[in-house]
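One chain given next:
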Amino acid sequence: MTQTPSNLILIGMPGAGKSTIGVILAKRSSRNFVDTDLLIQTSTGRTLQDIVDRDGYELLRKIEEDVLLGLSVSNCIIATGGSAVYSDRAMIHLKSDGIVVFLDADMTTLEARIHDYSTRGLAKRVDQNFADMFHERLTLYTKYADITIKCAGLTHEEVCARVMASARRTKHVSSL
């Protein structure tokens, strides 16, 4: 008998609302909340931007992969960093006890939410602008998503309601 996944994993672009939505979902579902960007920062004692500035985006992606592979939790809402989807191994590990929800925010929404990408600690190539990164990652988000929530024009509360309804309807996550 297959066990129903217990975790809900949020993926999406920086500014899509993963951390904010994650906290609301955790409160509504009486689950713990894990923000993997914060795990990276506490484990390294550095900000994401400092890692990118001093050591490059490749190291940030490697640290992120290591943190995700070391994550062993159940019944949690997990907000991943926007670049988590670059690691097939990490995503397979997360999906082993979780359902992946892609918070699909369009460029207009993302640009309205974030005004200074230079301080976000983005794991992207130096020659890559935000739009290029958006299009590159969209394929990966779609590849790993079990549920996709279109976020344009929705409040955080509305996004949460759709996530919970979709998870219940598809019976993907136990007791959500």
About this structure: The chain has one domain: 7-170. The chain has eight helices and five strands.
